[in-house]
Design a protein that fits this description.
Distance between the termini: 127 Å
Mean pLDDT: 84
Strand content: under 5%
């Protein structure tokens, strides 16, 4: 054994700051504490003037009011057929991801049909023979 007198080791076990340094740390944190309005803007504190005991009930009532408003709006919502008749929704049973391609295909089909009709239309002379146009009437002549 050691011949030295019993010496107690008083070094702290955890690296916690001691004494005045610890108190200064708390003061520093309090100085950099965010304002109440900032906490309300970030939705950390409730922005209400109700008593703390009533804040939970007030929040529940606000959510219930929002739920009721949504249900009322959905109850008066027009059905799909009405929206299709008013040309708000497309009259298509295709998946929404395919509706753009479907619309483009329909447009190209209409353009092809018009082009085909224009290629096979009768000449003005033929229309004069059938009595649809008069002899002095020429649709190709500019006015």
């Amino acid at each position: 054994m050691s011949t030295e007198p019993n010496v107690v080791d008083e070094t702290p076990i955890s690296p916690v700051r001691q004494g005045i340094e610890r108190r200064n740390s708390l003061e520093k944190h309090l100085q950099h504490r965010p304002e109440a309005q900032d906490l309300k803007n970030r939705h950390i504190l409730l922005d209400t003037s109700a008593a703390p005991a009533l804040q939970a009930k007030a929040l529940e009532l606000e959510r219930q009011r929002a739920t009721d408003n949504l249900k009322k709006g959905l109850a008066h919502r027009p059905d799909r057929e009405t929206l299709v008749e008013r040309n708000i929704l497309p009259d298509s049973t295709a998946a929404p991801a395919l509706q753009g391609h479907q619309k483009e295909l329909e447009r190209h089909m209409r353009a092809d049909s018009l082009e085909k009709g224009l290629q096979h239309r009768p000449a003005p002379e033929e229309l004069v023979k059938k009595g649809i146009l008069e002899a002095d009437e020429n649709p190709l002549k500019e006015v």
